[in-house]
Specification:
11 helices; mainly alpha; globular
Length: about 240
């Protein structure tokens, strides 16, 4: 079994991206899954060198002290920036670097940065890596995105949702109540198909939703307009 096949099997059956040293060392860039724009821009050898260097630098970040992790991960991300028009964000290891940056931003309480990386994952990575809309990992990560939105905003102790978006988020011109309602609707639908309404995850999500979302589910056109804004926002926040 090739490295790519092994990684696909692990993701399909156990819902995680394997980044063990064996997988990192065995990245095969000569397989059929290289996107055509990338093959047109770079040779297979150059793609292989780029991916191995990205894995090496991000691997250093995993072992580094917390205060050094962000700089190392940003160095790894910067390796792909000259090729970002051809090298998709969902392709490994670029996708893993984005996830690491999101997690470190959460650990450090850098909520706007975390929001930028989480939006990139939601918009560009997860729809490709987990094609089922109700995939458990995709659903949980949407929930994480919702929690980041709440942390990045401001929730008054004196009142409910009306106070939630009067902090750092108000500067971006996004209809956050609509965004939260749309994401909550997607998660609710995914829970019904995946986890089940009697699951502990469903109970946790219901409690969260009751506290932060009183906006009706938006129409498709309104949601698409906000998604365009979210793409721009992600770029503004983290490049």
């Amino acid at each position: 079994m090739s490295c790519r096949e092994r990684q696909r099997t692990l993701k399909a059956n156990y819902y995680f991206d394997c980044s063990c040293p064996y997988c990192n060392a065995s990245l095969s860039c000569g397989e059929h899954d290289i996107p055509e724009p990338l093959k047109a821009k770079m040779t297979v050898d150059k793609i292989s060198q780029l991916e191995k260097e990205g894995c090496r630098v991000s691997g250093l970040a995993v072992e580094a002290p917390l205060e050094e992790k962000t700089d190392l991960l940003k160095q790894a991300a910067a390796l792909f920036r000259p090729h970002e028009d051809a090298y998709p964000l969902w392709r490994y290891p670029r996708s893993l670097i984005n996830y690491y940056l999101e997690l470190i931003s959460i650990d450090l309480g850098h909520w706007l940065s975390a929001l930028g990386y989480a939006l990139k994952a939601y918009l560009y990575i997860e729809p490709v890596q987990y094609r089922l809309s109700w995939h458990p990992i995709r659903t949980v990560r949407k929930f994480v995105l919702l929690k980041i939105i709440v942390e990045a905003g401001y929730q008054s102790n004196e009142g409910p949702v009306s106070h939630l978006y009067k902090g750092a988020l108000q500067q971006f011109g996004t209809d956050w109540p609509l965004v939260v309602a749309a994401l909550a609707g997607e998660i609710d639908a995914a829970i019904r198909q995946g986890f089940g309404m009697e699951s502990s995850f469903a109970a946790e999500f219901k409690s969260f939703r009751d506290n932060v979302s009183q906006h009706p589910k938006p129409g498709k056109e309104a949601w698409q307009k906000e998604r365009v804004k979210l793409k721009q926002l992600a770029k503004e926040l983290v490049g």
